[in-house]
Amino acid sequence: MIDTTEFFGEKTKRVLAFGAHPDDLDFGAAGTIAAFTAAGIEVQYCIMTDGDAGGFDDRDPRETAALRHAEQKQAAEKVGVKTVHFLGERDGFLEANHEVMRKVVRLIRQVQPTIVMAMHPERNWDRIQRSHPDHLACGEAVTRAIYPAVENPFAYPELLHEEELEAYKVPWLWLYGAPKERENGFVDITDFFDKKMDALRAHFTQHPDVAAMERFVLQQCTANGQRAQYDEQRLAEAFHLVAVNADDTIAGF
Q1: What SUPFAM superfamilies does this protein's entry cite (predicted)?
Q2: Which terminus of the chain has a smaller tally of CB atoms within 10 A, N or C?
Q3: CB of 103 closer than 8 Å to CB of 141
């Protein structure tokens, strides 16, 4: 198990958090993100699809996309995030192809985060809803972009030669929505749980039963706190933490 408390100090300069759809980050990591911003750490969001195929009302997909953009910006503000990037991919059609990966590499080189967050690229058979194809594609695209493309000056050379975005080595990758056997880091979000719930409530087009959503999130965070062996009634979010460039990392190994 990795101690996550060390990441909430000077060690972490910036965090760049990716989600496949508006609301994915709020379900998976908004409590942790609120803890980061409360510690004075800058967090930026990148939402990879417009969420145009989500919701329960009969409305034009373009209207849905516009609403979900607005919802995500409001949700981000609830947890102290000021910058939200939208890649504009079509909901349900996200792929880990080179067009998407180039966009990811560009953004990571621009932001130069200490921690990149993304959805887990492995299917979760305990709760298959966590493994929407877009979720898996988000994790795969970000993971493939981080190594080796972000740190390889010969990958997408136009980013270097035309945009002057130099190669950058990402220190840490935090994956959320992971299969339980992959989770190796927990963050106590008890003091930030209300902010997480406020962020989730901002996605009004996605919750036909708000009370049921709230019960589910509380149940999941309570279970995470128990698995982390925190004191009773503490709430947590769970991650698969990957050291991409550690002190002992050498090229290619």
Answers
A1: LmbE-like (SSF102588)
A2: C
A3: no
Number of other residues whose CB lies within 10 A of the CB of residue 117: 26
Question: Helix or strand or coil: residue 160?
Answer: helix
Please report which helix (H) or strand (E) contains residue 16, including its range. Answer: strand 14-19
How far is Cα 199 from Cα 150, in angstroms, rounded to an integer?
30
pLDDT for residue 54: 61
Q: Which residue segments constitute the domains of the chain, with CATH numbers given? A: 12-243 (3.40.50.10320)
Least confident piece of the model among 80-89, 119-128, 202-211: 202-211
Q: Provide the token pair at 54.
A: 């989500």
* pLDDT of 56 over the 70 cut: no
Q: What burial class does residue 152 get, using C-beta atoms within 10 Å of its C-beta: 0-12 exposed, 13-18 middle, 19+ buried?
A: middle
